[in-house]
UniProtKB/TrEMBL annotation:
<keyword id="KW-0067">ATP-binding</keyword>
<dbReference type="GO" id="GO:0001678">
    <property type="term" value="P:intracellular glucose homeostasis"/>
</dbReference>
<dbReference type="InterPro" id="IPR043129">
    <property type="entry name" value="ATPase_NBD"/>
</dbReference>
<dbReference type="InterPro" id="IPR022673">
    <property type="entry name" value="Hexokinase_C"/>
</dbReference>
<comment type="pathway">
    <text>Carbohydrate metabolism; hexose metabolism.</text>
</comment>
<comment type="pathway">
    <text>Carbohydrate degradation; glycolysis; D-glyceraldehyde 3-phosphate and glycerone phosphate from D-glucose: step 1/4.</text>
</comment>
<dbReference type="InterPro" id="IPR022672">
    <property type="entry name" value="Hexokinase_N"/>
</dbReference>
<dbReference type="InterPro" id="IPR001312">
    <property type="entry name" value="Hexokinase"/>
</dbReference>
<dbReference type="GO" id="GO:0005524">
    <property type="term" value="F:ATP binding"/>
</dbReference>
<feature type="domain" description="Hexokinase N-terminal">
    <location>
        <begin position="45"/>
        <end position="241"/>
    </location>
</feature>
<keyword id="KW-0324">Glycolysis</keyword>
<dbReference type="InterPro" id="IPR019807">
    <property type="entry name" value="Hexokinase_BS"/>
</dbReference>
<dbReference type="Pfam" id="PF00349">
    <property type="entry name" value="Hexokinase_1"/>
</dbReference>
<comment type="similarity">
    <text>Belongs to the hexokinase family.</text>
</comment>
<dbReference type="GO" id="GO:0008865">
    <property type="term" value="F:fructokinase activity"/>
</dbReference>
<dbReference type="GO" id="GO:0005536">
    <property type="term" value="F:D-glucose binding"/>
</dbReference>
<dbReference type="Pfam" id="PF03727">
    <property type="entry name" value="Hexokinase_2"/>
</dbReference>
Length: 498
């Protein structure tokens, strides 16, 4: 009989549930199942370290290529990194006020919000959240918008019933649609392509504002879409509303993207619009597409290639596929499966559960990295509860080290993207704040620190002048502020004539 101890702990599942567990932990490697030895695991780890580690020099090369892509996207339409002009002109004053609805169709959830902007950088928000099923992401696009309209209607009705919203009012609505859309104005956006695993037919190439408006009319929803924004643009505006030092906003969640404010004169592709050069416009970079199709600049491993090739959009979103929460768990799972196939891991155990694609949630990586126990009880819990697999301490240490490699690479690549914007805009000397949001940034232990470490590796000491912080809720509050800014432009007679 192997030496053993009883362990217990609890895990918070991706669904928010808490799971308590008691497990039989093995403290030696000579148990009744043929497990890999410590030495063997250490050898394997070295191999993965070489694959997933990014040197400062390599990062600087990526930053240079990234900067070029940003410039190309600003110069011409239909480039790999689209650099989308958003028709959000300049920063908010902080004194925007009023009641607004916000609908946020993100990567994982649909959220509807009622936002009251109180001026002076203050606001109140109430919201309801609905989880989107995998089927809904693939159903006909109009049906998806009908669902958004239905949820919004139910939300408004509940606030009419309790007197918060006066019956008969038609509230302005900010629509946060976080997928790349080519915009001709603030209330128009043609979907370039779905990202983050969405594939709803009859939507790419269509104006999503028009589609959503149709759904709202069909169901008599008393709301008027005044602005379409992406979560990053919303985050940029909302963060600046409360922290005027903000220059860049990033999302590190199911997807990964950034927005910043650009001088119109430096956006050659919209020169024909005749907007004065010194006006500023927010740019939704859609940087998740960096290096797509060509794959010339990013260090892709064979696991990244498998993810890409088996995705619903092969070749696309190359940068995002190395970074975002939708994929990190899958990268780790593919490595584990490779070691199962090589006969290194889980010999004699039934591994069918972990062989299911996307069964290894990115939240598990966060949990594994933050396991505070010597025995790594959290990791025991994850493997035994979700995959019916027994692990030794040596294996658990290996899994934790792997999670660290994958998570660290994601954060360091994120730093490259931020560095490209910082360097392009010349923000390094003066320094700047970067509002960041998304599950990875908010929940993955050490993600922000690793970005900062990456910025230091790229820029040296001056890299410390660039500081990320947890942003305001861009898709709710940001969307409402953009709607308020649009209203002000309309009142000042500067709309729709830019
Ligand atoms: C994907 C989307 C982008 C969004 C990001 C974060 O990259 O294409 O629009 O901002 O995910 O949600």
């Amino acid at each position: 009989m192997p030496a053993s101890r009883r362990g217990s702990g609890s895990i918070t599942l991706p669904t928010g549930q808490t799971l308590a567990f008691h497990s039989h932990t093995r403290s030696s490697e000579d148990d009744d199942l043929p497990h890999a030895t410590k030495k063997k695991m250490a050898d394997h780890l070295r191999k993965y370290e070489a694959l997933f580690t990014l040197t400062p020099q390599r990062m600087r090369m990526i930053v240079e290529a990234f900067k070029e892509s940003l410039e190309t996207g600003l110069a011409k339409n239909e480039q790999i990194v689209p650099m989308i002009p958003t028709y959000v002109f300049g920063w908010p004053s902080g004194n925007e006020t009023g009641d607004y609805l916000a609908v946020d169709l993100g990567g994982t959830n649909l959220r509807v919000c009622l936002v009251t902007l109180q001026g002076g950088g203050k606001f109140e928000i109430t919201q309801s959240k609905y989880r989107l099923s995998e089927e809904q992401k693939q159903e006909d696009g109009q049906k998806l918008f009908d669902f958004c309209a239905e949820c919004l209607k139910a939300f408004i009705d509940s606030y009419i019933d309790d007197g918060t919203i006066k019956a008969g009012t038609r509230l302005p609505l900010g629509f946060t649609f976080s997928y790349p859309c080519a915009q001709k104005s603030i209330d128009h956006g043609q979907l370039i392509r779905w990202t983050k695993g969405f594939g709803a037919p009859n939507t790419e190439g269509h104006d999503v504002v028009e589609m959503f408006r149709r759904s709202l009319e069909k169901q008599n929803v008393p709301a008027e879409i005044v602005a379409l924004t992406c979560d990053t643009t919303g985050t940029l505006i909302a963060s600046h509303y409360v922290n005027p030092k903000t220059r860049i906003a990033c999302i590190f969640g199911t997807g990964c993207n950034a927005a910043y404010m650009e001088r119109v004169g430096d956006i050659p592709k919209i020169k024909h619009l005749g907007i004065p050069d010194d006006e500023e416009m927010a740019i939704n970079c859609e940087w998740g597409a960096f290096d797509s199709f060509e794959h010339e600049n990013l260090p892709r491993t064979k696991y990244d290639q498998i993810i890409d090739e088996t995705s619903n959009k092969p070749g696309e979103q190359a940068f995002e596929k190395l970074i975002s929460g939708r994929y990190l768990g899958e990268i780790l799972r593919l490595i584990i499966c490779e070691l199962i196939d090589e006969g290194v891991l889980f010999l004699g155990q039934n591994t069918y559960k972990i062989e299911i694609p996307y069964s290894f949630d990115t939240a598990f990586l966060s949990l594994m990295e933050s396991d505070p126990t010597d025995e790594l009880l959290m990791i025991i819990g994850i493997f035994s509860h979700f995959f019916a697999l027994e692990t030794t301490l040596a294996e658990r240490q290996f899994f934790r080290a792997l999670a660290k490699l994958v998570g660290r690479r994601a954060a360091r690549l994120s730093a490259c993207g931020i560095a490209a914007i910082v360097s392009k805009k010349g923000y390094l000397e003066e320094g700047c704040m970067v509002g960041a949001d998304g599950s990875l940034y908010n929940k993955y232990p050490g993600f922000a620190e690793r970005i900062h470490e990456g910025l230091h590796d790229i820029f040296g000491e001056k890299g410390r002048n660039v500081v990320t912080y947890h942003a305001e809720d861009g898709s709710g509050i940001g969307s409402a502020i953009v709607a308020a800014m649009t209203k002000q432009r309309k009142l000042a007679g500067r709309y729709p004539d830019l």
